[in-house]
Design a protein that fits this description.
0% strand; mainly alpha; 6 helices; single chain
Length: 171
Amino acid sequence: MQIVTWLQSTLTFTWLHTTLSLIALFSGFVVMRDLLKSAAPDAWTTTFLVSSIATSATGFGFPFTKFLPSHGVGVIALVVLTLALIAAYGFGNRGAWRPVYAVSLVVAQFFNVFVAIAQAFAKVPELRALAPTQSEPPFAIAEGVALLLFVALAIAAARLYRYQPMTAKAA
């Protein structure tokens, strides 16, 4: 009976983690578009931040016996997301914090995509056949192309994101 309960809770936790990951991935692409348009942060940005933080944090909830590369990605993603929060809420996206915010969001989305590619190669039979150990060229090419696209996106976001919240005028 305990095994069934454990399996059900593990499946529920996996479903929750996967759902959060998909929400972060989808909302992240909307946020990337908005960054390039200098749009004000909105509900999509909040959804992206909350779901990205939650998916990185829940990644540590799976059973493990040693620190894995996925945990390293989770730690780095949480640091990057913290930078985005500090830039937005601590410094109001002003001055040098504006590109820090934009690039932090792009890097956080890159990590979401990086993990999605790794999961696709691990779970989709056709992709797994191409790169069973994820050290083969098809996997490296997919991750490399993603990296190049996100480097370009980070540069563009740092240059183009110009949204600055209105400030109250001194009396």
